[in-house]
Amino acid sequence: MGWIQNRLRNRTQKPGQPEADSETYFQEAARRRWQKLGEELKSDLAEFSSHQKGVTLTQPAEDEFRISNSLSGLELLITADFDAHIIRYQYSALNRNSAGTPDGGMLSMRQSRQGMAEFYSADERLTSEEARQVLLEPVLFPRQTAA
């Protein structure tokens, strides 16, 4: 949806309602983006699994993905908070194979001019591939500690 459509839609809304309607619209877009992220993660993990085994993805809740790599000894938990417009991610050790547990973080979700939800790290817009790399790289390709 472009800026003209947004303006026209906002003009037809009653005073005091635009923010609520806009927020509802954004949350729907954010949920669609979250579902797309899940599909993209599954695709990336299928590609990785064709070369190396030990990686699993589960979705324990509608707003949560859990990715485990038994070879790296790491697990990634990704949680969406649609009200706060953020995606939180944290890593944890599964076993002693882990060379260390990386810090987690968060990505913000912002509405584009077209009405889509996009991921941002700090104030930098991330492409779909960049967002997945930020999330998956530590668990799939962990840094090796110096011996």
Structure description:
This protein is of the alpha+beta class and 147 residues long. The radius of gyration is 18 Å and the shape is elongated. The protein has one domain. Helix 2 (18-49) packs across helix 3. The chain is 37% helix and 30% strand. It has helices at 3-11, 18-49, 128-140; strands at residues 55-61, 64-69, 74-81, 86-93, 105-111, 117-121, 124-126. The model has no long low-confidence stretch (mean pLDDT 88). The longest helix has 32 residues, at 18-49. The chain is built from 3 helices and 7 strands, in the order ααβββββββα. The chain has a 7-stranded antiparallel β-sheet, covered by helices on one side.
Terminal Cα separation, in Å?
Answer: 54 Å
The largest sheet, given as strand count, sense and whether it forms a barrel, is: 7 strands, antiparallel
Structural class: alpha+beta
Order of helices and strands: HHEEEEEEEH
Helix content: 25-40%
Uncertain ranges: none
How many domains in all? 1
The gross shape turns out to be: elongated
Radius of gyration: 18 Å
- Overall mean confidence score, pLDDT: 88
Total of helices:
3
Q: Reading side by side through the largest sheet, how are the strands ordered?
A: 1-2-3-4-5-6-7
Counting DSSP E segments of at least 2 residues, the number of strands comes to 7
Roughly what fraction of the amino acids lie in strands? 25-35%
